[in-house]
Write a structure and sequence with these properties.
Layout: H1 2-36, H2 39-45, E1 47-50, H3 60-67, E2 73-75, H4 80-93, E3 101-104, H5 117-122, H6 126-141, E4 147-148, H7 172-187, E5 200-204, H8 223-239, E6 244-247, E7 251-252, E8 255-256, H9 261-271, E9 277-279, H10 287-291, H11 297-307, E10 312-313, H12 317-327, H13 333-349, H14 369-382, E11 384-388, E12 400-404, H15 430-435, E13 442-446, H16 460-468, E14 472-478, H17 499-508, E15 513-519, E16 534-539, H18 545-553, E17 632-639, E18 643-645, E19 649-658, E20 664-674, E21 685-694, E22 699-707, E23 713-714, E24 720-721, E25 725-732, E26 739-746
Parallel strand pairs: 1-2, 1-10, 2-3, 3-4, 5-6, 6-9, 12-13, 12-14, 14-15, 15-16, 18-26
Antiparallel strand pairs: 7-8, 11-16, 17-19, 19-22, 20-21, 20-25, 23-24, 25-26
Helix pairs in contact: 1-13, 2-12, 2-13, 3-4, 6-7, 6-14, 7-8, 11-12, 14-18, 16-17
The protein binds alpha-D-glucopyranose.
Length: about 750
């Protein structure tokens, strides 16, 4: 045994030595190259341009700049021949032959589109997220793309914000785990592999807190919340080896992110030792003028360079002003060198110096069977069953179904936001699926509305007769893709157009009604629920959404998704999120005074609690909620100990039983609460989740290990540590778990 241990320590030592040797070799290459570069060439590396050409010889418009070493990166160039042509100029015609890094937003797929990230988050499955990113990396690198701008890990608590679609939702723990998984998928084990692309964690930082859910708006995140909520996923993903990071558009407390030296230098570089590229967002540097933080582009370049933004996306402040700023001593050449080293280090890691060109004879893997199967699996696992009464689901193959709604056959909309390179012709919609794989189903298709925003109800009579001639109505509603994503915030998140009327009309027939929603955000569907016997919610499910939805509706797959974000009753309740502070007056019951008939009640009749008189304090559906065709029971929650010394650990064990006769998968969630802290702590925090599959009637002990490090937070001294004291611990199937245990952390 001792020999075995000795050998493993020896091997570990060897691998650490070889990693160190590789790092040293890389640094000497970077330093040697920088030492040969002129100031102009260094500044050229810090300049990223967007490509606007449409055919190969359009690259001629960029030849001079590339040849003179004025461009370090091109984005939005996806034609392999053009990429090779651009690379040839850089490598063979510029003085030092430094290759370009080619960027593209491949957010949830390049050709084969997976569910939007908010949907992938609903799977609570890092393997789903990693697989999706792997497929995207393979499909994009083979075309010559070497850098993508994902994962977006902005904590998002406001469904009015269109970019909640790109996020993993409201929880820092889940976002961190899934962000790490996405980086693993994109970057693989070796960035220089022909199947890897550099990931980019974004947007640094706090963008998801845009005031009013209005995109690009200011954020007002105080230091403790910044650390404990918004920065945690970035810290996790930097630790996991994210190659690059993008600054955000917002000013936080008056400081635009691209000029935030504290975040970019103190936190990112000094505390977290990040050694990759920091790239600005699209013109976010120049927008510091609009913010009122810089007086002109020269001032922009000075602020951003001294703050630590390495590369400028498209606004050309650096290329036009940095040389003068260095000559005036306003920006040191040492700062420029640091930025350039970060850029070159990433290019070396990507293997661009050794293999700058993409072979033109690679057979495209786009839409391959294995990629489409992976997208279907992801869409199945990303769907959330919100309601299923009278066992209307799963459907039976012998039922005649009326397929209704504007999203039943909407190949473009089904893909969701941030889809630049996929062809909608490859989308398999629910109607396509009934024409192919599920062609045995007896159905009648009557959209009723032409698109989600349509208010023309002229065809409702056809809808009624279609449903009257059927056994059950399946209504596909939701949001067109354009209604979510960047710059697409909404001040009303009810179902748009006449879709709610469509559901009501369907219910008026007296037939069972199944509502299938495809959207880019949580919606206020409270007013629709009474008219639906079942609701299956899909955050835009991607290319294979059609087959996935029918697999779920017919029980070929059993829904297992859980909400990664809270669904509110009314938009006026926003923000509601599960990991909130308790306040001094937490509401304990909903008192809807507007529904009461008492008059002239006394001032304190409803109790002075934190709630709304007309919509209470409870959400419509809480974080972590999701139904299944199975039913699961939790029992016998036990802790291995009720006291843990600082630095120690314990086990939390619960019995999970599938009390139905249908095999199903449950996302078992573990939450804690720190009852007293040096700053107030949330009423619940997710600290673990496991997906457990049980056959009907099967029972299993589910075990979590909790260390005191898992309980740490940033307090008044901005140091992350665990404080001794009393804690609650819950394990359950949502953020409203029923079983609670207690433990104490001791010195
Ligand atoms: C956009 C987005 C950012 C994206 C970048 C490049 O404005 O904010 O997320 O990666 O520009 O397209």
């Amino acid at each position: 045994m001792k020999i075995k241990k000795g050998v493993s320590i020896f091997l570990l030592g060897l691998s650490l030595l070889s990693i160190r040797a590789q790092q040293n070799e890389l640094e000497s290459k970077v330093n040697s190259l920088v030492s040969k570069m002129t100031l102009k060439e260094k500044i050229g590396q810090m300049n990223q341009q967007s490509y606007w050409g449409t055919k190969v010889d359009d690259i001629e418009q960029y030849r001079e700049a590339i040849k003179e070493g004025k461009v370090g990166s091109l984005l939005n160039i996806v034609d392999t021949e053009t990429i090779n042509a651009a690379q040839k100029i850089a490598v063979e015609e510029s003085r030092l032959g430094i290759p370009l890094i080619i960027g593209r937003d491949v957010i949830h797929g390049f050709k084969t589109i997976f569910p939007i990230p908010l949907g992938q988050a609903a799977s609570f499955d890092p393997r789903v997220v990693e697989t999706g990113a792997r497929v995207a990396a393979i499909e994009s690198r083979e075309r010559g793309i070497t850098w993508t701008f994902a994962p977006m890990i902005d904590i998002s608590r406001d469904p009015r914000w269109g970019r909640i679609a790109e996020s993993f939702g409201e929880d820092p723990f889940l976002t961190g785990k899934l962000g790490v998984a996405m980086i693993r998928g994109f970057q693989g084990n070796d960035l220089s592999s022909p199947t890897s692309v550099a990931a980019c964690i974004k947007h640094f930082a706090g963008y998801g807190a845009s005031e009013g859910g209005r995109d690009y708006n200011s954020t007002h995140i105080p230091p403790y919340q910044m650390r404990n909520v918004y920065l945690e996923p970035f810290r996790e993903t930097v630790k996991a080896g994210a190659a690059t990071l993008m600054t955000s558009f917002n000013d936080n407390d008056g400081i635009p992110a691209s000029g935030n030296e504290f975040l970019l230098k103190e936190v990112l570089r000094k505390e977290w030792s990040f050694d990759g590229i920091v790239v600005s967002d699209w013109a976010s540097m120049a927008e510091m003028i609009t913010h009122g933080y810089a007086k002109d582009l020269k001032h922009v370049a000075e602020i951003a360079a001294n703050a630590g933004t390495d590369m400028e996306m498209v606004s050309e402040a650096y290329i036009g002003n940095l040389e003068e700023l260095v000559n005036e001593g306003k920006v040191s050449e040492a700062s420029i060198d640091e930025a350039v080293k970060n850029i070159l280090r990433t290019k070396f890691r990507l293997g661009l110096f050794d293999n700058p060109y993409i072979p033109l004879n690679i057979k495209s893997s786009a839409y391959s069977d294995s990629h489409m199967d992976a997208a279907r699996d992801a869409a199945v696992k990303s769907a959330v069953l919100l309601k299923n009464e009278n066992s209307v689901l799963p459907l039976h193959r012998d039922q005649k179904i009326a397929v209704i709604g504007p999203m039943a056959n909407a190949p473009h909309e089904q893909l969701g936001t941030w889809v630049f390179d996929a062809e909608k012709e490859h989308t398999i919609t629910p109607v396509n699926t009934l024409e192919t794989e599920y062609s045995d189903v007896n159905y009648i298709y009557e959209p009723g509305l032409k698109y989600s925003r349509d208010t023309d109800t002229l065809d409702f009579s056809k809808v009624i007769s279609a449903i009257n001639s059927s056994d059950v109505a399946v209504i596909f509603v939701g949001e067109e893709a354009i209604l979510s994503g960047e710059a697409h915030s909404l001040s009303d998140i009810n179902l748009v157009g006449a879709q709610s009327d469509l559901i009501k009309v369907a219910k008026s027939t007296g037939k069972p009604v199944v509502v299938v929603i495809m959207a880019g955000r949580p919606l206020t569907i409270g007013r629709d629920l009474p008219y639906a016997d079942a609701v299956l919610f899909n955050f835009h499910p991607g290319t294979m959404g059609g087959p996935a939805i029918w697999d779920l509706l017919y029980g070929k797959a059993n829904p297992s998704g859980k909400l990664p974000v809270t669904f509110v009753n009314e938009i006026g309740q926003i923000p509601i999120y599960y990991n909130h502070n308790n306040t001094g007056r937490p509401a304990v019951e909903d008192v809807n005074i507007l529904g009461q008939d008492e008059l002239e009640t006394e001032q304190t009749s409803v109790g002075n609690k934190s709630m709304y008189l007309n919509s209470g304090y409870e959400p419509l559906f809480p974080f972590g909620f999701g139904l299944s065709y199975s039913t699961f029971e939790y029992s016998d929650l036990k802790l291995s100990s009720n006291t843990i010394p600082l630095g120690g650990k314990m086990k939390a064990i619960v019995r999970l039983t599938n009390t139905s006769n249908v095999e199903g998968t449950e996302v078992v969630q573990l939450y804690i609460r720190d009852l007293v802290g040096s700053i107030v702590r949330p009423v619940k925090e997710l600290k673990g989740f496991q997906k457990i599959t049980l056959k009907g009637g099967e029972s299993k002990l589910v075990e979590f290990e909790i260390t005191t490090d898992d309980l740490a937070f940033y307090g008044k001294d901005s140091v992350k540590k665990t404080e001794p004291g009393d804690f609650y611990l819950w394990i359950g199937g949502s953020s409203n778990p029923e079983h609670r245990a207690e433990f104490t952390v001791i010195e």
